[in-house]
């Protein structure tokens, strides 16, 4: 272990971690202010906010030799015996001057700026800036420029950290953004006719340390200090990016990426970022109902539970469709409920939407072609209960072979059931269907029970992404009135006491199912790699591909 | 000092001195032939090292030491960049060299590449030097035809290709890493060092960057021997053995208010007064000098009391300037208002800032705006302190920016304010008789004391009683997200 000294605090670190000065100071609990540095982007060391005094400890003599220059902490490799001084008068003077410089031509239009409240320029000015402005000129120009479908640029708020430019060059690989002109006239811009419309473009808004890049979907909608952030998982594809869901009084206003080095690093795609409005769509199913001779009969939570229990008792042969949009816990509970009613009931994997191919960007970010969050987890649950995992296309055959009397279908895809080739066959069979879904569809029109389901933001649970990483989330908002989250309903149907507790279910299924064994115990924010367990199982095998591969980090 | 016979500019007065025939008739390329035949690359490096040659581009870094940083175990290729992007106001040494004697520069480049085993060299030429470009291109063609360039130079197994790259008129391209970025076809943003160009330079390969004048000196070191070179200039003072000394001839470009402006090749260490009086023919119109810009505007100025400063690598530093710089000496006579010099200097550097680092991008225009206000009769006495503080933070404190461009503005501002403070104060009082005492800008919102934490400013004396401002929330409440 190497040792460094940051403001007199001893930090132990491993030199192979390749830390820089900012990360090193963070280990000591000291925040070095910075604008241009971002862990996911290359280092330019141009904002000069992270200047520190750097010294070197001589192990032979015990002296500390200080370099005469101030150095940007973002560009100092942490090495053994390095000494950082982050609070000296020289450093404070330099920081205060950078702050003054940045505000010279900044419009300071915080009252109408979306970033206010989470703006680094604000924070750092209060912490490190001069007490007052001493220049006699007060510029106020706030030129706005559209640079893409989703992104708008407030030219004068920019502090030229060039994070967005580096992002488009290094991560999205599309390079739309550039810096034009030079000196204090330089601005961020696009080449005419080539707008910033790539699939990762939303990230530049999160990257921007000030309010220069605005998200048109979020612009002027909410002040950020009213928003509460909840950790969640994106369900738009099988990558399973970690998210922050920002809500205010059960209304989602913004989705931001949450750092998860094993899944999405710092980024998410626009598909996941801008998908949330469907959660608040007025078309959503919000009333549980049962078919009766004179139309739909609405049910409340209590009557629904009674009638469903009775219906489960009544029918003897069941087939269940477990949607890949269910959480692992819900799939497990549903399988148990169905197996209680019919111990030999086949379980079918639900509709797995796919579009195109996996899309990988130069920075390593991948948008999966499989547009559901939990196929792997549901497959493993099915595999535990039933012998083989049948795709939904084989549903009619499964029904025939089993002689099913009733069907339990779960949905949850916001795009509905396109296409449903087996729908007509089921209609002809006149099988009663219990349907849990979030939007009305041809299927819901012909079913016996309609149970409105909850979206990912409204229910707790865990998802397994395509790289076998299980991530657990809590509910960000309450579901709309009348919606019964799947897990809660199944928990009660199975006859369990108390409120729905997905953590308890996860522990239970982790004990039951070998695949989930690694999920025993508390789940960290970044999730657990379930292959750790597979590795232990296959340790007796030769040192072949899958075992070695499982140790690599997903990206 | 005895008369010095020029070597770098020896061909200047000859007719058609830029052609190969004239250069060869004066003994040109003989050194190259001798060296390629009889000397190993190590010998050349040793000779340059023994001569004590220091870079002529401004920083005065020992040339042989720079060469020695090239990694030995690197598979290559290595590159050489000859810096002829001379854009410093008041400097035109390289221009005369390239226009009058391009072959000498080429020979220097070939010898240096031979010493460092480099196979490919770029000459980065300032765009505005059209004549130099033509003559350099012609010279390269001639040299290729005569077998001094290309493969197997002069019958040896050494090969070299030279390319001329013209800049696009930006001062920052003269900074060595900015120059590399420009050759690579990118914005000339200087790069953060380390890694130094000698380990990762042009196209990510080890690169040596030297000024063309430095490279031309190599020819004469090898031709006349390092002893000859060390006999010129100022040796290091005996009391300070760490000092490297300033050896060899240097081309000074003299301009401004002198009778005979021009280019003079003189030994390093010549007193500034000698240069102006003996060579430049004295200050024009019988006036006295007020200030002298030492070596290009970025190095700062000497006042009239410091004219005996020797022009070598340490003399200007002792007189409170940045250094020798490029040797562009500008003389200002006693009638010239010093605020005009500051105005011009700041305007130049504000315009030429590449815009990468905050202190330079915003700080230099900030200084310029203040100087402009002073010049326009809106100055305040407190502005001079602000100027000193800005200059401290854009260049005097080392390391506040990636490259040295902001230093230029910082040093001109600092030396002007320090050395001519009385004149500037007089100027401010005279041009702004009603407002020169004002300390704070009008319309400033004053914050109650002790609120947003920060460094001590100079303003707490004039703060209003507590509670008068609406902005009285503590920094903990307002900061942090």
Could you please describe the fold and organization of this structure?
Chain A has 555 residues and is of the alpha+beta class. Chain A is 25% helix and 21% strand. Chain A is built from 16 helices and 25 strands. In chain A, strand 8 and strand 9 form a beta hairpin. The longest helix of chain A has 16 residues, at 89-104. The two termini of chain A are 28 Å apart. The N and C termini of chain B lie far apart (69 Å). Chain B has three domains: 20-231, NADH-ubiquinone oxidoreductase 51kDa subunit (Rossmann fold), CATH 3.40.50; 246-336, Ubiquitin-like (UB roll) (Roll); 339-431, NADH-ubiquinone oxidoreductase 51kDa subunit, iron-sulphur binding domain (de novo design (two linked rop proteins), Up-down Bundle), CATH 1.20.1440. Chain B contains 18 helices and 13 strands. Chain B has helices spanning 20-25, 30-38, 41-51, 63-68, 93-100, 102-116, 130-145, 176-183, 212-224, 226-230, 272-279, 315-318, 338-352, 358-375, 381-396, 405-419, 421-431, 475-478; strands at residues 79-84, 120-125, 161-166, 207-211, 233-234, 246-247, 249-256, 262-267, 270-271, 289-293, 301-303, 310-311, 328-333. By secondary structure, chain B is an alpha/beta fold. Residues 442-481 of chain B have low confidence and may be disordered. The chains are: A alpha+beta (555), B alpha/beta (481). At the A-B interface, strand 4, helix 2 and helix 3 of A face helix 13, helix 14 and helix 15 of B.
